[in-house]
Amino acid sequence: MKYIDVFRTSDRNEHSIIKNLFDDEKLDYRSYGEATDNATNIGALGNDGLRIEVAESDREKATEIIRRSGFLGQSHNISNPKRTKPQVGKWVFVLLAALVVLIAIIFFVWFMSGN
Prior knowledge:
By secondary structure, this protein is an alpha+beta fold. The protein folds into 2 domains: 3-69, Alpha-Beta Plaits (2-Layer Sandwich), CATH 3.30.70; 84-115. The chain has 4 helices and 3 strands; from the N terminus they run βαβαβαα. The chain has helices at residues 12-24, 34-40, 59-69, 89-112, and strands at 3-9, 29-32, 50-55. It has a 3-stranded antiparallel beta sheet. The longest helix has 24 residues, at 89-112. The chain is rod-shaped and about 90 Å long.
């Protein structure tokens, strides 16, 4: 029997949801990447990610299940994950500027005191 790759992700929660949906519908599927994901505990980095293959005869049904679950149509780019930029950048700048001003005031008071 030939199997076709229908779902690929680096998120083990998505993977588990799809597996449970396929179990409920009694689809013939294979799951890959779980052992490596659990062993490394870093979201399947360094391998192919988590993927699910279904029997060729169940392809349309599997695609419909994934579409209904809301995961189909979303980008699952494992090789180039999108990283969010931290939002603390401007606050660090403000804090450092305040620290510089405070140090300048301390030096000014110290030198002007005449001691």
